[in-house]
Amino acid sequence: MKIKLSFVLAVLAVISLFGRLQAQAQTDDPSIKATTVFGKVSEINAAAGQITIKTAAGSVVVAKVNEKTTYQRMPPGETDRSKGVPTSLTEITVGDGVIARGFIAADKKSVPAQQIIVVSQSDIAKKQEQERMEWRRRGVSGIVASLNPAAKEVTISSRSLMGATQAIIIPISDRTRVRRYSQDSIKYADSKPSKFEEVKVGDQLRAKGDKSPDGTRVTAEEVVFGSFKIVGGTVAAIDPAANTITVNDLKTKQPMTIVLKPDSVVRRFQMMMGGMGPGGAPGGGAPAAGGGERPQGQGATPGAAQGPGAGGPQGPRPGGGMNMADLIERLPTISISEIKVGEMIVISTLTATEQNRFTAISMVTGVEPLLQMLAARQAAGGQARPQNVDLNSNFGGMFGGVGVP
């Protein structure tokens, strides 16, 4: 009996320990500290005095507010508390970013909030759009072609729609903010601080900074890079419920499974009025801003080609006008339900987690006319076939992770 009792007690002790470890794992969230919790507002119950906060890791904490709780609104990215302005519970909306200050409960599921600091969802969206426009205006992108360790310079290669290859030299100084995309995340927000020594030939890289007058050198304020794979093929099957697409590889004809995540960006290539225009661009220039077709009889939409080196304040891109990245940035986004079997697509992906299974970062569908144009240029008297297009040299550098930039 004593042996049985000891055994039972030992089992109970193990179960108790496992429960405590499991509870600790469930609440080991970096967004939850002893006196603060940070996340986004998922629900507001003003009558009950409760704000439900969901952290980036998925934890849910209920902030309990009362008449003594103070509220402050901060501009996005600002850490100087003097820049905040008073606000109220009624001005907070679902989706806003918040920090609730107070003593977090032992189970980390509630906090009596002494102060709520909020950054509005609309302010965040405006800031992100401003940052995107800044990257478009002052940014360059391409494939890392060579490295100069002695001078800490990266040379990237990009190709214009006319087929001209341009080399851009990017010095990396101590003042340059360098980040690398995570190996397991497609989000720019998840990129990690990095350094020149981690950049490799073949990486996709984007840089933002001041360009030289001829556009061949950029004094970079920020650089972000990563190792991505570019593949293309024909859509064979679509499973909207599973958010997957079966694609027959452009070159090998072998089936690949493409997984679409909530953050994946899907765009549709569009032929504009007049077909392929001068310079190989659709419709005689670029797609209209926002992806719509131009009214019949009109030329290039004013401002449609505004982008890094694509005319506008920075002047034309050396070597042949707007590049592929500039074009694709202006294509309309679509949902998985709008993709059609038989269409050709080009995809930027992370390294395959399983054989022939990839997570899509960015995808452009309906690209057969574009691939045919590129194939004809590349053939040089040979057979112009889309499967012969060098996807990496033509599309490399235009696809990074999602989010800003």
What attributes characterize this protein structure?
about 400 residues, alpha+beta, OB fold (Dihydrolipoamide Acetyltransferase, E2P), 7-stranded mixed beta sheet, 5 helices, 20 strands, globular
Could you characterize what this model shows?
The protein has three domains: 30-119, OB fold (Dihydrolipoamide Acetyltransferase, E2P); 129-226, Copper binding periplasmic protein CusF (OB fold (Dihydrolipoamide Acetyltransferase, E2P), Beta Barrel), CATH 2.40.50; 229-293 and 320-395, OB fold (Dihydrolipoamide Acetyltransferase, E2P). It has five helices and 20 strands. β10 (153-159) and β11 form a beta hairpin. It has an eight-stranded mixed beta sheet with strand order 5-4-8-6-1-2-3-7. Strands 11-10-9-14-15-12-13 form a seven-stranded mixed beta sheet. It starts with a helix and ends in a 10-residue tail after the last helix. With 405 residues, the chain is α+β, with helices and mostly antiparallel strands. It has helices at 2-27, 121-138, 324-329, 368-379, 391-395; strands at residues 36-45, 50-54, 60-64, 70-73, 85-86, 97-101, 110-112, 115-119, 139-148, 153-159, 165-171, 177-180, 192-193, 204-211, 218-226, 229-239, 244-249, 255-268, 344-349, 357-365.
**Into which percentage range does the β-strand content fall?**
25-35%
Strand order of the largest sheet: 5-4-8-6-1-2-3-7
Mean pLDDT over the residues: 78
| Count of helical stretches | 5
Overall form:
globular
Q: Return the CATH class of the largest domain.
A: Mainly Beta
Derived from helix and strand composition plus strand pairing, the structural class reads alpha+beta
Largest sheet: 8 strands, mixed
CATH homology-level superfamily of the largest domain: Copper binding periplasmic protein CusF
Low-confidence stretches: 21-26, 273-321
Distance between the termini: 68 Å
Using DSSP, what is the number of strands? 20
Rounded to an integer in angstroms, the radius of gyration calculated over CA atoms is 26 Å
CATH topology of the largest domain: OB fold (Dihydrolipoamide Acetyltransferase, E2P)
Domain count: the total is 3
Roughly how much helix do the residues carry, as a percent range? 10-25%
H-E order: HEEEEEEEEHEEEEEEEEEEHEEHH
CATH architecture classification of the largest domain? Beta Barrel
